[in-house]
């Protein structure tokens, strides 16, 4: 008896729609929904929407936590420290003048970059199906087994 197969045999569970990491991060950086790229990702400065207004994707699963702040510190710290050191080599000035220049610049740079970076982190989590973005319940992780218990 011969069976006619409409689809190729696949192993490893259900086929999942591909979620390109680069595209998802880029959409998050632009403040857009990582799934459709059209809906807004934030309803306030750092407050993500619960679900996308365009495609309905549940974005409540995000757990960006402190990662955006760490990334901002690494990027802004390196850029401003380089700027400070180069400026001090070319135009030696008192520490107070440098403080007056670089401290407000650091605050401004952090405020400008934190929202796009948080969006990028949410896009990364969505693409990697982390924290319930893959359709599983994030609260059912059994620490003894290191994975979802159900
Ligand atoms: Zn969407």
Strand order of the largest sheet: 1-2
Give the biggest beta sheet: 2 strands, antiparallel
Percent of residues in β-strands: under 5%
**Oligomeric organization of the protein chains:** single chain
End-to-end separation = 38 Å
* Helix segment tally: 3
Bound molecules: zinc ion
Q: What is the domain total for the residues?
A: 1
Number of strands: 2
Ranges with pLDDT <50 over ≥5 residues?
none
Strand/helix succession: HHHEE
Q: How helix-rich are the residues, as a percent range?
A: 40-55%
* Radius of gyration, CA atoms, in whole angstroms: 22 Å
| SS content category | mainly alpha
Average residue-wise pLDDT: 86
Describe this structure in words.
By secondary structure, this protein is an all-alpha fold. It has one domain. The chain is built from three helices and two strands. The chain has helices at 21-29, 67-90, 95-127, and strands spanning 141-142, 147-148. Strands 1-2 form a two-stranded antiparallel ribbon. The longest helix is centred in the last third of the chain and has 33 residues, at 95-127. The protein is elongated. The two termini are 38 Å apart. The model has no long low-confidence stretch (mean pLDDT 86). The structure holds zinc ion (ZN). Zinc ion (ZN) binds next to loops.
């Amino acid at each position: 008896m011969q069976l006619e197969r409409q689809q190729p045999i696949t192993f490893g569970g259900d086929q999942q729609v591909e979620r390109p990491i680069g595209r998802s991060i880029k959409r998050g950086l632009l403040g857009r929904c990582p799934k459709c790229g059209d809906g807004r990702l934030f309803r306030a400065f750092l407050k993500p929407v619960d679900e996308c207004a365009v495609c309905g994707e549940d974005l409540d699963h995000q757990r960006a936590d402190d990662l955006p702040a760490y990334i901002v510190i690494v990027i802004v710290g390196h850029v401003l420290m380089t700027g400070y050191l180069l400026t001090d080599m070319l135009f030696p000035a008192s520490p107070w003048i440098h403080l007056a220049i670089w401290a407000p610049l650091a605050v401004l740079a952090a405020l400008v970059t934190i929202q796009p970076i948080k969006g990028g982190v949410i896009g990364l989590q969505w693409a990697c199906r982390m924290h319930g973005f893959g359709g599983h319940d994030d609260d059912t992780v059994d620490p003894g087994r290191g994975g979802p218990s159900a």
